Structures are given as C-alpha cells and as structure tokens.
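User: Second chain of the day. Same drill as before.
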Amino acid sequence: MTTVYLARHGQSDWNAAGRWQGHADRPLTALGLRQAADLAEELAAVRLDAVYSSDLRRARETAEAVAGPRGLEVRALADLREVDVGSWSGLTRAEANERFPDEFRRWTEGAHGWEDGETYEHMAERVVAAVLRIAAGHAGEAVLVVSHGGPIRALHAVALGLDVSEHRRLQPVEPNARVSRIAVESGQIAKLD
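Assistant: Same format as last time:
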C-alpha cells in the first residue's frame, strides 16, 4: 500500500482576489508562504519518501517548503494541475456571471460551465492516472502530492466511490494547505481521512 498525503497549495494572489485560476501560473501571497511553512511544520514528523506537485508555481512553491528541509526533490507534473477553466481564468464569480450568464447558471447548478478549457471529468481522469502512476513507483512508501482544490476533491470522490461532478457540488472548497490522506493499493484509491 502507498500512502499519499494530499495538500492544496498555499494561498495565491488570485485566491485572495477571488479569481478563477485554472492553469494560470500565479504566485503565493505572503499568507500563502506562511501556510506553506506551516504545512512543512505540520508534516515534519511524517516520513515522506517523495514529494510531487503540480507544475504550477503556487503548488511547486508550497511543495518546496516541505521538501527542501528534508533534502527531497520536488517532482513537478503537469497532470496534477487544476482544471483548465478556459476563458473564465482570471475572472471573479460576478465577472463570469456577467460575461457568461447561461454558462455560469449551469455551473452553479452543478453542470459544466465554461465552453472551453476542460471538464471536471477529464481533469479527474488525468489526476487519478497521475496519482496511480506515482503510487506504482512508490509501493509501500509515503508520498506527498501538492496540487489544487479541484484535483484533491476529484481524488476524494474516487476514493469514496462518488461521481466527480456530484461531489464537486457537495464538497466545499478545499482549504489552502490542508492535508488529507488516501491509500493506493492494487490500482485502487481509498480514503484514509
């Protein structure tokens, strides 16, 4: 069994401004840097054999705060990125509602909103495949994966046997720098906490 610790990146400037980020490569705020340092402290007593992150700066910088003091390399993977929100990137909810009222209404009802970018289901497929590959390379080990709210919610949904889109509607936004755990064994994902 591989234990995978999941952590969302620290607060970015667009998190603070309430803007959709998707694949936008935004930096951490001063609070985000403190959250990353707090995450490193929270995990200090936890054995980690490897650290992976999304290749986006906010996740990579958060992962480096944990990996650096341990002398571990951060392995950055594009497959661990947030869902691509297409033309909604950089918009607040109010701006998305103003520019794309029909799509925004659909999104608030739990359906797919943006017309470009990617679906939650596609994002979930790529993230789950990436985590299964990571786990296969670290059988019996403990790994930290620093990613984004959408991918973490998708992994939790798969671990609980739930539909990704339905879980997205029911699950609140993943807090910045929060840690949870999943287990991967025989190609199956299970939730530990």
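The longest helix spans residues 120-136.

User: Great, on to the next one.
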